[in-house]
Amino acid sequence: QFRVFYLDEGTIGGSLEDIKADLWKIEDQGKALGLNVDKSEVVSHCESAVHPLFSTFSGLQYVHATHAIQLGSPLGREALHVCIEEQIHQLTVMGDRLCHLQMHDAITILRHSLSIPKLLHTLRTSP
After folding, report:
1. Contact assessment for residue 99 and residue 106, using Cβ atoms and an 8 Å cutoff
2. Do 91 and 115 form a contact (C-beta atoms < 8 A)?
3. How far apart are CA 111 and CA 127, in angstroms?
4. Are 109 and 98 in contact (CB under 8 A)?
5. Which of 15, 21, 29, 75 could form a cystine bridge with 68, CB 3.0-4.6 A?
């Protein structure tokens, strides 16, 4: 079994029966606390969209295992490629806008608050 949670995001892994039991437990205990699981936010990383988990829990999102992203970190090469391409696009758009600011202000914004921290996180945590 594999269970990792951070704030309102979590990862559950293991056999199909373990995952089902964990999801049922989260739903039942959440209801007792007045919390609901938003199934549109629940993502299943597996090899096929025809999986027994989807028939048990309706509303799950399917993401192929090669495109899996967890806590902003790509889990495979294809997911890394998609993340990097997206961040390059964001940096290009931002660069076009930052040229209208004074140099010092633009560098400060770029360095501390926009895409650079996200890009560094992606590069540090990717496989």
Report:
1. yes
2. yes
3. 24
4. yes
5. 75
pLDDT digits (tens, 9 = 90+) for 38-57: 766 666 666 555 566 666 66
- As a whole number, mean pLDDT of residues 15-19 equals 74
Q: Which two tokens stand for residue 60?
A: 């799950």
Residue in the block written with tokens 């199909």 = 16
Contact indicator for 125, 73 with CB cutoff of 8 Å: yes
DSSP character for 8?
A: T
In whole angstroms, what is the distance from residue 81 CA to residue 51 CA?
Answer: 26
Task: Locate 59 and state its tokens.
Answer: 């509303």
CA distance linking residue 96 with residue 72, whole number of Å: 25
Contact 56, 46 (CB under 8 A): no
